[in-house]
Amino acid sequence: MKSPPRKTIPRLGTFRYSAVELLVALVLLFISAPLVEDLPRGEIIEALLLTIVMVSGVLAVGGQRRTLILALTLFAPALAAQANGV
Q: What's the total number of domains in the chain?
């Protein structure tokens, strides 16, 4: 006789985020980047899409608290460098 699955309460900093969302963000970036680069504010739109990809990447690897902190530590300077470049 099988026992019913136990319900666990997720702890803060541990959540499930699949890599499918990261893949969708990457595909969106690759498809739209050539289309928006010629627009008047195309750099800003492209930077926003790249930020979405980076946030999706952080969420995709941040399943554990330690990994999430490391990913955020690497994400912060990349975001600051991107903001200074736009």
A: 1
